[in-house]
Amino acid sequence: MWAHNQGFCVFFMFSTCLFDMYQEQRIMIFRLKYFKTCFAMSKFRCTFATNTKIMEKRYYKLIILLAVCLSVTSCKERYSVGEKVGTLIEFAKSGLFWDSWDGRLNMTQTGMNTAGEPFGFSFDNDRNDQDSLINLFRQAQVEGWKLKIKYHRVKGWNWFCNRGRFDYFVDDVEVLDKDFANVLRNGSSASGHVIDTVYVVIDKSEIFKH
Questions:
Q1: Among 144, 147, 137, 149, which Cα is nearest to 100's?
Q2: Exposed/middle/buried for 204, CB within 10 Å: 0-12, 13-18, 19+?
Q3: pTM
Q4: How confident is the model at residue 194 (pLDDT cuts 50, 70, 90)?
Q5: Residues 189, 190, 192, 196: is their CA dihedral positive or negative?
Q6: Of 187, 173, 94, nearest in space to 141 by CA
């Protein structure tokens, strides 16, 4: 009986040891799987973060490219063309980084000041064939000539005012009246005089008396 019980105890202890070894093996396997999963997740996170940064860079580059394309396509050299008539009230060469000949025109037909703002214009710095026009404008400012300016307006191609202060550039000019500011010019000897208006009243009764 004692031998039987001793054999059972040995078997029970052996079974318990086997079960403990099995449990430890399962725990080790679980730990290995857990570490593998964590490593895979960390690797995935690193890869995902790297891919996200790459996508963000590409996204920013795409936005910049679209902005540049929109800016370029919205620019136009001859956005509008037209003519202005008036007298010069300002014409000078000035500029902070790029000097340019700029002026303002008092738009008038009769010599009276207009209610609106003067017309601002510039000579294009990219052109070198307008020296004669510049000299004509300088003389017109001094003499008070009446001018008709032909111009064109640019859209977007003068961002830094490197071509001129204004976006309206002179193409040509025509002198309409050299005596507009003073009709008594060039040594004329003619003298003015005052003309009064006389009103005559006729009384019919006085006519019949005579």
A1: 137
A2: exposed
A3: 0.56
A4: very low
A5: positive
A6: 173
